[in-house]
Amino acid sequence: MGGACTACLEAKAEVCDKDKQACIIDPTSLWSIRPVSAVIVAKDPADESDWDVDGSTPDVVVRLACPSDSDEAVLGLSSEVSSFTPAWNDGECSVTFSALMKKPTNITLLDVDFSFDDEISSGSYQFTEANVREEYVNLAMPNKASTLLVQIKPPQRKR
Ligand SMILES: [Ca+2]
Ligand SMILES: [Ca+2]
Fold it and tell me: For a tag site, which of 5, 19, 124, 150 has the least CB within 10 Å?
């Protein structure tokens, strides 16, 4: 017995659901949401002005609020990258698969300034199991200011 479960993917944190005789993603498995890269439009769509007064490239940070199994969100903050096509290696937040399926993840892109930061875009995304299986999701952020590629990083394998 258990033939259907022999193909469960350890790399995707799959476990066997014995009742369904199927592989499901372990609800307690810990994934990371990571900003990979973004494409920022040349001008702020709100008023067609440059992101910075001198017309220089925006100084982009990504703020993530991952859902958790409690009411408290888990935050991630990327480093600042000055580019219309910024890319990051940090800024991830961790989330259990069950929390990720139940609640949306909040994402904010900011242009860092001396006084008040410009909000480039901010949105709330309910990721799906299909997103998790595909691992990379390209999000069209609200107000058409940007697109953001995020990675839903599989759990590190225990050794
Ligand atoms: Ca600015
Ligand atoms: Ca700036």
Answer: 19
